Structures are given as structure tokens and as C-alpha cells.
Amino acid sequence: MTPAESTPYRAGTVAVLGRPNVGKSTLVNALVGAKVSIVSPRPQTTRHRLLGIASFENGQLLLVDTPGIHREQKRAMNRMMNRAARGAVEGVDAAALVIEAGRWTEEDALAYGALHAAGVPVALVVNKVDKMADKTALLPFIAEVTRERLFASVHLVSALKSKGLDVLVKDLLYLMPESAPLYGEDEITDRSERFLAGELVREQLMLRLGEELPYSTTVEIERFEEDGEMLRIAAIVWVEREGQKPIVIGKGGERMKAISTGARIGMERLFGRKVFLETWCRVREGWSDDEAALRRFGYSD
Ligand code: GDP
Ligand code: MG
Questions:
Q1: Hey, whose CA ends up nearest to atom 11 of ligand 1?
Q2: pLDDT digit of tens for each residue in the chain (301 aa)?
Q3: Deepest of 58, 181, 234, 249, by most Cβ within 10 A of its Cβ?
Q4: Distance 274 CA to ligand 1 centre (A)
Q5: Residue environment code for 224-261, b if the CB has 16+ CB neighbours within 10 A, otherwise e
Q6: Cβ–Cβ < 8 Å for 14, 61
């Protein structure tokens, strides 16, 4: 048997699930090898379902990054985020259940139960092992989590430091059906550059605004044009109340400038070319509970 016959090309879809902030988007980026999904220390950074495409020599993983399911159902945005997370499980070949090393909660147990009942093979991804001072505590922790539960495989990883990911890829590929590549091998996501540009501005809002304000903001890309070698992009930061505008803009426009610069650097890195970015802040009262406004801003479920 030649090596090519012993390792057939496999390709399929993996839902990346888990509580907010366990590192799902960081993991997707690490596997794709590019920042397709934004990351911040705050929960609910990811608001949209997004496909990260990771291509390897003998296969391709379509990683579905999801907003973590959360309990607050008050606003239309949260309801749409929950539907996006649940919908991500339909038709997948496997799931990666991401948890934080040393923490297993009722929500994790529920997610496992739902996947197991649906017949989806689950790879347990214990992330952030770099943060655990006492590594000897990991074994009893894993023994406890895997007791009376059936995981396709168990992985100790650090998505942040790209540790433990080679074996994870190998085991996930093994769960995929034999298939030709489903996307071009140079593609990294199913989302447009325009969408990614908006996300990179939103990431800066998550990183630079304190307390509750990031949850009252969203970003609309008003213009996205090629101009020779460079991209001309105009972004609107939407807030919900007039009083929030000065906070986003900051003293003398300092904060808005920092947001704009941070987002531009991220865009230039991701798109591989020069970007000219303009940003404005505008008010639209109640956008986060207005389904029509949400759809216009690119939200879907
Ligand atoms: P998500 O909400 O599950 O998508 O989580 P994110 O990917 O947005 O990550 C949440 C926070 O955890 C961010 O501050 C990440 O930098 C951090 N994080 C993610 N993976 C790791 C890891 O392996 N180790 C450490 N120390 N931090 C991580
Ligand atoms: Mg995320």
C-alpha cells in the first residue's frame, strides 16, 4: 500500500462549541493560521457564525465558530446569537467541545448531552492548559469529566500558544468522511473581506471600551472599495444613545483614533495590503432589539 492510499483525503465540518470565553475563536484562528474570528477577554465577543477553513496535506476541516450560548434572551440580538449557535450543530461531521482546563460546568454537561444524543462524535478540547500552575491536577480532572461520557478523543491544548494542535487536527480529520476538498485550499473563511473588516473594528471596541458599552455598539461597513493596490474602507460605529457617543470618541477623538488604528493594522495584516480606513460614530436608538436594523448590520441566525 502506498502512503497516499493509507491516508485518504478527508474533508468535513466541525462545530466548535463551548461556553463564552473558553477560547473557541482563538482555537479556530490557530487551526486556520489567520485571524478570521475576533478575540477579546470579554464574553460574547463572537456574535456571528463563521466558517474557518483549515487545509492540511491530507484533509480539510471546516470549523464552525459560534457565539457561545448564553442565557440572556431579552434582546433580539441575543436571541439571534443563540439560534446561530444551535443551528451550527445541524449536519456537522463532528464537534469540538472546548472547555477551560480545571473547569467543568453544568452548561458543558448539557452541551455534551445534546451532542451525544444527536449522534455527533465529540472531541473534548481542554484549552488554556498553559494557565494551569499545577499540571498534576489535570489527570484527575480529565478522569472525572470523561467518566461515563463517550468522547471520540481528549486533547490538552493551548490555543493561544498553538500547543497540542497537531494531534487534535489528526484526530478531527479521522472523524471526517473521505472527500475532495470542499473549499479552495487558499481560502480561509466563508465570510467576505467586507464582513471581516467590520469584525476587526468591533474587536477594537471590545478591547478598548469599558464595562457594558461594547454590548451597545455594532459596526457597519459603509464603503469597501479597491483603489489600485489599496483598500478604502469607511466604518460606522453604531451606538444606542447620544450619551454613548462621547465615550466611544474619547477626549479630543483619542479613543476613536486608537480604535481606527488598531482595526486598520488588523485589516492590513489579514488582507495583505494597505488600507485607508475612516470611522464615524452614529446613534441608532434600540438597534440591538430591532430585527430590521440587525439584519442591515449583518446579523443573521
Ligand atoms: P471564545 O469566546 O470562546 O471565542 O473565546 P476567545 O477565543 O475570544 O478567547 C477568550 C479569551 O481567552 C481571550 O482573552 C483569549 O486570548 C484567551 N485565550 C484563548 N485561548 C487561550 C489559551 O490557550 N491560553 C490562555 N492563557 N488564554 C487563552
Ligand atoms: Mg468567540
A1: 41
A2: 555 557 899 999 999 998 889 999 999 999 999 999 999 998 888 888 899 999 999 999 999 998 866 665 666 766 666 665 666 677 899 999 999 999 999 888 888 888 888 889 999 999 999 998 888 989 999 999 999 999 999 999 999 999 999 999 999 999 999 999 999 999 999 999 999 999 999 999 999 998 778 788 999 999 999 999 999 999 999 999 999 999 999 999 999 999 999 999 999 999 999 999 999 999 998 888 888 888 888 787 7
A3: 249
A4: 28
A5: beeeeeebebbbbbbbbeeebeebbbeeeeebbeebbe
A6: yes
Query: How far apart are the C-alpha atoms of 158 and 136, rounded to whole Å?
Result: 16
| Ligand 1 close to Cβ of residue 47 (< 6 A) | no
Protein residues within 5 Å, CB atom, of ion ligand 2: 24-25, 46
Kindly state the cell numbers that stand for 175.
472523524
User: How far apart, in whole angstroms, are the C-alpha atoms of residue 200 and residue 89?
Assistant: 26
pTM for the structure as a whole: 0.89
Residue 252 backbone phi and psi in degrees, to 5: 60, 20
Q: Which residue has the cell 498553538?
A: 162
How far is it, in rounded angstroms, from Cα 112 to Cα 201? 33
DSSP helix, strand, coil percent of the chain (3-state; round to 5):
40, 25, 35
